[in-house]
Here is the input.
Amino acid sequence: MAAEGEILVLVLSNGMQFSELAAVIDGLKNSSKSMGSHARREKYWQAYTKMNSKVAGMDGQAYCMLMYRAKEDGEGECSLMELTKRQKGLVNGACEFMGQKVKPPEDPSSKNWCLVFSEEDAPRAWRDLMEAEPCICIAPDGVYVSTLHKRVLCKALSGPIKSLKDLEALIAELAPEKPLRSISFTGNEPPSVNSYNTFVVGPSQLGPQLPPTIGHVASTSTHEIYAYFLKRKSAHTVGEADKLIAQMLTDVSKGETAIVLTGKKEAQIAVKNSLMKRVFVHESMGKFIDFVRNDGSIEMIVVSGPLEELGKFGEFGGLVFELFYRADLSAFG
Here is the structure.
């Protein structure tokens, strides 16, 4: 179950009529009767009741996201966010969306749909839609820019790439807008090829030949593809964090005032006094992550995965940060 205040249910509508959206929500509400425990049934009944009340009486096409946030005591809160012009373009065919698509009950052949996410999938889908970093996937039929729930075909291919030389030539041609496209909900942000975000997907004879900068995942499952990307990204970010830790240990051995530090207390002092330039933080530190996000001026890299598998970064508790200049934080209280 989602934590208190987290999104319990998320619905993304790509333009069905509000009356149709209300009917979809009503169907979800009725299906919640079959959920396991009474408490779970009651929570979802409240969620869909609130959502239905939010769209009841509204006219026109529903280009929106509906979010219901859970609360431990009492009813949760429902909000409706209208899609921007850019987001409307994406849901209207500019990119493909993956997930549980529900059509209007009275018109199952409609081109309109809504995506429904619940429990742990709901906050994960929200982050994917709004802020997830995309990867660049080279499949037998083309080059895609993709996250877990969004993807777009950027360059069609006639079949699998058969030689490393041809693959490297293809990757060398991939550039933002030429042909890599943006699938961001918040702005035009086409990706660039880097050392971890580009890889071959599906069965390929090239796997053993590939350099570290080009990955390969045999699966064609969108979940497994994006999980593989996150694993590659994590390895890269842990490597960068370990470089900071190595610098910190060198400074300590020389008796120099620190510019790289670890520790939650020290990190909070650095944030409050506008001293923090960059921070690597483990995904488990939710409150600190929100604290840094609220500041808005710090480069933050969130690292996922079990701490025991994250090298020196894991050994130092999953938090390392860099200051703008060398400073003794004890002087700031």
